[in-house]
Amino acid sequence: MNKILQQQRRRFIKSSAFGLIGITAFGNLSAQTVVNKIEMGNNAEPLFYRYPSINDSMASGIVGASHGNFDKVKELVNARPELAGASWDWGFGDWETALGAASHVGRRDIAEFLMSHGARPDIFTYTMMGMLKSVQEIIETVPGIQSHAGPHGITLLQHAKNRLENKEISASDAANVKKVISYLESLGNADSKPKSLDVTEDEKKKYPGEYRFGNDEGEIFIVDTHRLGFLQIGRKGLSPRKLSKIDESTFSPAGAPSVKIIFKITNDKAVSLSVYEPEPLVTAVRI
Fold first, then answer.
1. Which helix or strand (DSSP H or E) is residue 11 part of?
2. CB 271 within 8 A of CB 265
3. Nearest to residue 153, comparing CAs of 125, 189, 195, 123?
4. Residue 52, Cβ neighbours under 10 Å: how many?
5. Model confidence over 75-101: pLDDT tens digits?
6. DSSP state of 153
7. Would you say residue 271 has pLDDT above 70?
8. Which residues pair with 260 in a beta bridge?
9. Element (H, E) at 15
10. DSSP state letter for 244
11. DSSP symbols for 97-144
12. What is the b/e burial string over 87-119, where b = at least 16 CB atoms within 10 angstroms of the residue's CB?
């Protein structure tokens, strides 16, 4: 059982004991004093600030693990089955479920495990699994849905193609996925990607840096270049998001096409950036 689950279990035991003993057992102490006494006595960390909501690190942890770490997925879900249905916003509204993660990386084994514990499949899961009839029925019921992107802007067709890249896929499974691919390709718009202009090497030198938008230590955006060559942005200490250029000095983060990040350029160098969602939300100044 991981540290977070252990902490939550300790807190549950602590609070249950509190309820059974009753506040009168502590004489004339105030309720807050009792709470403080129990907290300090057990050396427990404070409850998650949105408790009883599940801790953010647990939600992001299961979604992250579902991209390929099956052992971690089983550890987390066996201890807390509700996590099978968890979702996480990686940034700017790029929402992803644990099942969505397994679906876009082609991990049928993880997807089936999550579904067996209550995760709710959608057209992206059915596509990855090669379930042609289900995919056809959904598209016939909601025409055009095939053009909608999944997490991180990954297209429906790409979900199927990613499944084929799994070396452990069976021959029958691969045959079914190929049928789905053929069907989606016949529609002509199941692989529609958002606008993304080329970024020159000279342009890439303009933008990287740290941009502060507040006084706290973590209130900083970091813009840098990914090892694969694309620009990315992330809040300090959090996962970065890929940036796609949509206009001059204007970018959109992966999975959030309505969001625009506009850089102000002075002397061929970015001096600030402004985030529009779609209205102006925050401006960060380069440090």
1. helix 3-21
2. yes
3. 195
4. 6
5. 999 999 999 999 999 999 999 999 999
6. G
7. yes
8. 276
9. helix 3-21
10. E
11. EHHHHHHHTT-HHHHHHHHHTT----HHHHHHTT-HHHHHHHHHHSTT
12. bbebbbebebbbbbbbbbbbbbebbebbbebeb
The encoded tokens of residue 121 equal 């499949």
pLDDT at 37 over 60: no
Is the distance from CB of 287 to CB of 210 less than 8 angstroms?
Answer: yes
| Separation of alpha carbons 23 and 41, rounded Å | 16
Give the C-alpha separation, 19 to 14, whole Å: 9
pLDDT of residue 44: 65
pLDDT value, residue 195: 87
Q: Which helix (H) or strand (E) holds 36?
A: helix 31-42
State which H helix or E strand residue 274 sits in: strand 269-276
H-run or E-run covering 42? helix 31-42
For residues 243-264, average pLDDT: 97
